[in-house]
Amino acid sequence: MPKLSSFDYAIVRVVPHVEREEFFNVGVILFCPTRRFLQARIRFDPERLTPLAPDIDTAMIQEQLALIPRICAGGADAGALGALRPFERFQWLAAPRSTTIQVSPIHCGLADDLEAALDDLFERLVSTNPNE
Asked: pLDDT, tens digit, for every residue of 20-47?
């Protein structure tokens, strides 16, 4: 049986009007330093945003959200952030912000299969259709 590893995760949120503090979850970032694992799952449905902010630039939000998995992966495709160590990239991604895209406080967990843990968190915290 694989050994359990501790991990940290943060939930990615879209906050259309920061002053109102209304948000919906669009992703999860999971980091495990002992296994050098840093990945994100993102799903943004612009139609969910329409009731809260019909005039918001959903294309810009999609572009910004698409950067998160690239930053997790690191390398040249992630720009200057891609040169940082995984821990530094996670800390940068999980830092508090007062913008349209925010993350939750960092939470922790234990898992032997980090991919499965990320999938499970994503399903429970982000998915709007339990059959997806």
From this structure: 888 999 999 999 999 999 999 999 999 8
Q: Among 31, 117, 124, 95, which residue's Cα sits nearest to residue 69?
A: 31
CA 131 distance to own-chain centroid: 21
pLDDT tens by residue, 65-98: 999 999 999 999 999 999 999 999 999 999 998 8
**Element counts in the chain: helices (H) and strands (E):** 4, 5
Q: Which residue has the tokens 């925010």?
A: 102
68, amino acid identity: I
Q: Which helix (H) or strand (E) holds 109?
A: strand 107-111
- Cα dihedral 82/88/92/96 (nearest 10): 170
Task: Report d(CA 124, CA 11) in Å as an integer.
Answer: 11
